[in-house]
Sequence to fold (164 residues):
Amino acid sequence: MAMAEACKDKAPYIPVLMDLAILTGQRERDLLNLTRQQLTDEGILFRQSKTSKKLLVQWSPALRTAIDIALAQHEAGKKKTVTHTRVLVNTRGNPLTVSGLLSMWGKIQRELHAGGKISERFTIHDLRAKAASDGGTYQLLGHTSEKTFQRVYVRKPVPVKPTR
Fold:
């Protein structure tokens, strides 16, 4: 929550990106390249940039809300000459770039860490792992192997019971 509050005025697109990353489990590049054409009646259709695998992430109330917020930000920042169809945009209405996003992400992370609002910094890629740890499946992340998914992404400790 500290991250979302810190971004409210400077970079309102970051909380939306975070929600989309956690809800869909998709890579940063696939989220930045998300277009309106990928929003279908059934959900969001991704063609993963790394593997070219097609994936349909079905709508949930939380996912629909995140997309609605992103589209509202798009309209709020829209210039009269905007011709792109990207869903995630900066405060000027231009498509987010990797360098612009990482620059703002790093700045906000440093501020929050220095102010004691977060105990350790994290990356956008860590949100993909959070999606997995929060109950996502290997299919959600586009993996073909449950073993790789468990080894790489599931980071929460496994709860076990003592012998007595």
